[in-house]
Amino acid sequence: MARIDAYEMLGDEVMTTALLDRLLHHAKIFNLDGKSYRLKEKSKTMEVK
Known about the structure:
Oligomer: single chain
Order of helices and strands: HHH
Structural class: mainly alpha
Radius of gyration: 18 Å
Helix content: 55-70%
Shape: elongated
């Protein structure tokens, strides 16, 4: 996945920091363990080829 520099994208470092602070203040973090369904399906399609 490509890294996106939010400051450059939005043009103002202070406003970007404030925006991200407001968005992430009440964010919930989910730690998912286990096998990825996406990778499992990809490995199936690679076996077929």
